[in-house]
Specification:
By secondary structure, the protein is mostly helical. The protein is about 75% helix and about 0% strand. It has helices at about 10-15, 20-30, 35-60. About 0% of the residues are buried.
């Protein structure tokens, strides 16, 4: 499904999910494109955010 066809709130939610970002990067690579360093930095920032969230949630729910 095209992202443009989704409601705004769902598109925003999907943009933050790692699977959406990975699929987007795979499409660009398959089309012969490259992934810019700035985009790679954003991916690292999302990964670190999820890692911190994963590490911190058990302490909240104990």
């Amino acid at each position: 499904m095209l992202q443009q066809a989704l409601p705004g709130w769902l598109r925003t939610t999907g943009d933050g999910l790692p699977l959406t970002r990975a699929a987007d990067a795979a499409r660009r690579l398959a089309d012969g494109g490259v992934i810019a360093w700035a985009r790679g930095g954003a991916e690292w920032a999302v990964a670190v955010g999820y890692a911190l969230l994963t590490a911190g949630l058990p302490t909240v729910f104990e």
